[in-house]
Each structure stands twice: as C-alpha cells, then as structure tokens.
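Hi F.,

I've been meaning to write this up properly since the lab meeting, where we talked about keeping a consistent format for the predictions we share between groups. The idea is simple: the sequence comes first, exactly as it goes in, then the structure tokens exactly as they come out, then a line or two of notes. No screenshots and no reformatting. I'm using this chain as the first example so we have something concrete to point to.
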Amino acid sequence: MNSVMTLSIVAILYLCAVAYLGFRGYKSTRSTADYLVAGRKAHPVVMALSYGATFISTSAIVGFGGAAAVFGMGVLWLTVLNIFLGIFIAFAVFGKRTRRMGLHLQAHTFPELLGRRFNSRFIQGFCGLIILVFMPLYASAVLIGIARYIESTFAVDFMVAVTVSSLVVAGYVIAGGLKGVMYTDALQGAIMFVGMFFLLVYTYAQLGGVVTAHEKLDQLPQEASEQWAAILPEVRSIAPEGLDDAAVFGWFAGMAEELKKTATMTDEQKAAFFADLPQAKAVGGILKAHPEAANKMVVAKLSKGGFQGWTRMPKAGSSMFYVLITSIIMGVGVGVLAQPQLAVRFMTVKSDQELNRAILVGSIFILSMTGVAFTVGALSNAWFFLPVNGGKVSVASVPGGNIDLIIPAFINSALPKWFGAVFMLTLLSAAMSTLSSQFHTMGTAIGRDFFEKGLLGSSGQTGTVMITRMGIVLGLIATVILCFVLPEGIIAAATAIFFGLCAAAFLPSFAGALFWRRMTKAGAVASICTGFGFGFFWIMFIQMPKAALPAFLANLLLGKPTLLPDPILGIQWNWVEALFVALPVSAVVAVVVSLMTRPESDAHLAWCFDGVRNGVKK
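Output, unedited:
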C-alpha cells in the first residue's frame, strides 16, 4: 500500500471520529447556553485540552516553527511567556473571575461579558464587530498552515486544500456549537501531544542526540564561512578583477539574486538574460556544483538584520531583535490574555477547582506544543545542512525561501513515512481545533453580540443560533479569501498582528472589568476605541511586518513603506509591534477617562461583583 493511500485512510478515519464527536455535540445541544458555552459543565481536562488546542494551531507549529528556523532558539522565550501568562496568569487570575462574573451576569461570549459589566450594548456590539472583521486574518494564518502541508504531502492544489479544510471544520462547528468544538478539541489535543512527542524524539535521534544536535546548530555560521572559503578561489576565477574578498562575495550574492528571476522566464527571456549577463551562467554552475554556497549568503543576509547565530539572540536594536521581542514573543505572549475564543473557555467549567486542575494539564500541553515546534524549527537547519540532505540551511532548502514551507519540508524529508500519517493528524488537529473555535467565535459575534444582545437588539434563542450559524459561514468566506491574497511566509506575522490588536483593544477594559470597580463605561468605551484605532493605524501606516514588508495603507495610499522610516529616541519604530505602543495608550486612556467620569451606580457594581470578590461558587 503506497504512502498516499495510507495517509488517505488515516485521514478518513480521523474525520469519521471528528464527525461522530460533532454529532454528539449536536445531539446534546438543547439551548443557547449549550451552543455558546457548552452548558457551563465542561470537564477540566476537556477544557484544558480545548483551551490548549485552540491556542496552539498550525500557525504555532508551521508558522512559528518556520520563524524559529530563521530566528533560532530565542523564539523559545515565547514558550516561557505562553506558560506564565497564557496558562498560569490566564487561568489562576483572569480565569476565575471571568468564570464567576460570566456566570453571575449570564454572559455567553467575551463581548457580552464586557457589555454587561459596563452596561453597554455599544461595547458588546463594537467588540463583536472587531472580532468579526479581524479574526479572519488569524484564521487565514491557521488555514494557510494546514493547506501548505496538505499541498506538499498529497500534491493537492493549494486552493483545493484551503477550501476542503475550511468546509470540514465549518460543518461540525455549525452543527455542534461549542460542545461539538470542545469534544473534538479534546481528541485533537491528545493527537497533537502524541505527534509532537514523536517529532522531538525523532529529530534528536536524526541529529545524534540532544547535546550533539545543539552543538551542530551552534557551529553552523562558522561552518558556512569555512564552506565559502573553500569555494572562493573558484568564484574568483569568474569574478571581475581587482575585487577584495568582501566585494567578491557581494558580487556573487548579487548575481545569485538575479538568477532567481529566471525561474519565471520563458526560454527567449532566459536567452536575453544570459546574453546581458554572461557571467550569470558561470555563477549558476557554481551554485549547482556547490549548493552549500547558499549558506553563506543566508547568514550574510540575516546578519544585516542583526542575526548572530541560531543559538543566540539577535543583536540588540536590530530589525530582527525588534521583530523577535516585540512581535513574536510579546505580541503573542501578552495578546493571549485578551483572546475572545480563549476567554470564553473559562465560562464553560462549573467551579474554580476545575480551573485549578486544568492549569497543570494546560502547562504541560503548551510546553510540549510550542517548545517542541520552536526547537525543531531551529534544529531543522542542522538537518538540512548535512550534505546527504542537501547541504543547505532551512530557508535555502525551500522554494522561494518561504518559511511557511520549512516544517512541512522537514517532516516529509527527515522523518519516517509512517510518521507522516501521525504528523498529518497532528497538523489537522492543530488547524481544526483552532479554526473551529475561531469560526464559532466569529459566529457568536454576529449572532449573539449583534443580533440578540448587541447593536441590532433582537431576541429569541432560535434566531440567535440561526444567525450564529450564518455568521460562521461569513467568517469562513472571509478567511478563505484572505488565504489567497496574503503574501507568502505571513503566518507568524498575521498571528502576532491579531494577538496584538486584541490586546490593545480589549485587555485594559477586560482587566478593569474584572478587578477595578472604579472602571466606568466611558473609560471602557474610550479605551477600546483608542486601543483599536491606534493599533489599526500603527499596523496599517507604521509597522512593517517581518521588518521587510511595507505597511499596507502607507504603501497603498502614499507610496511609502512606512510613515516612520527613521529612528526616534534611538528606536526604529517601524519594526516595533503595535501592541507596544497601542496597549500603553489604551491603558492610560482607560484609567484617565474612568477617573474623570461618574462611577457606575452602587447597585450595578453590586450586581456585577456579587459572588466574585468573596469567591462564592455558582
């Protein structure tokens, strides 16, 4: 039986299991509370696995794993932050109050919790609008991750992979609601744990053990320089005369970049190209005979951005440093506290004890997911660097240097064929668990937060569920469209942007709603609008994703890559994640406006905080 047939059978069995769990969710869903918050009776292990599986998606495994292949082991600081903030602080500090207040106020969604705490339909509706409009960006990053793996494994067209994957997920979310989502999340989380464990073991086995693997990774930049020194005489023989060693390398790297253009040329265009640059053919010959020459070019290019090796942090103040710290580590690490699809999980358990029991499970799960993905992503360089595996570092081993292809390429090349089936299920589980929660959250944003309780103000549980299902379809369509228009290698950047935008818009009001009685409706409205507006402006006009792509609206409307190209106060602001600027502004606005406006009534505050501060179990 060939490998494709085996993978197909495994995938079909997996989808049958998912369909069964979705059907169970459908059969046990009898009310709006069942559909929106799983009846508030979820088992702590199911809740922890659902939270973790929702948090960890293909964007973490494929996108951030690929980013680790570029940035190196420094990405592991995100794992530390994910466990400390995303699990311990989220569960023990935010989670308990979210559960108690959500239950007491009978809130079924994250926007509804804020709306009821501040007695504002505008807050609920506007938060729902932000989710509905911008969550497709995050969902598309997840969907691209699984579609790229399916594309490379099954030789299926990217468009087909995107469409089929999204329809499968939407099917059981529409039918089963949050119960169906959490049932399938638990299964998918267990599969992910097993798959990532095997991935880590096999990776270290391929590289000779833990110590040897990390030593190899540490030595790669030096070995790349030695490889270049070995072929330098051959390069000098075709280079212009009178150039020193550095100039010869610069000339060779420039010619190699020009050669990349021939990949999309016709035969006539290629003939004209080589006629204009006769030395290009000789450069191509050297690259073919010595593929390892690409390693020095990759290291040199990364070094311009502050790269100091795959086992070291980038140079302080460099573009890679800003992207790694402010976007990848802090953007996602802090942004997790204000993720609507994660916060609602706290409302699904029946007591604080369930949250305490879920902390250990969640911590182990996050460590095994992100820790493995980031470690393997960095170590993939050492594997691809071996002559028998091509002799080139990871980013030089995938088409177009697309970092989103690194993890799929590593899995398909480095590990046994049977493991492909296991890891295929891991990625399917990672994608489907996150997408299901995203589609459910987008659906509730329009069904609950617009139609029933928010800006549109209707009523009736049947109508809510129906409109929620329609919202899921709208979110699905927007997500699929974005998959086809976003640039390559965008998974990690898109994820960080969404997490940062949520933190800037929601986190100050969320924290104030739970912990500060003096927080007013005016303060919350001002904070949410300011955080969202400032964050959106920064992303569209200032921030250059990956420190290379232009800010979208600045480039589209003004023809400039960014409005802040030069350092201010010694900081290169166009490399700084929006979170670092918009979140402090949003927090200050929340405090100042709340202190300047009339407090909420004592009766309303007593209603909101009854059973919260004193720990009454509801």
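Notes:
The domain at 3-212+311-454+466-614 is CATH 1.20.1730.10 (Sodium/glucose cotransporter).
The chain has a mean pLDDT of 84.

If this format works for you, I'll send the rest the same way.

G.
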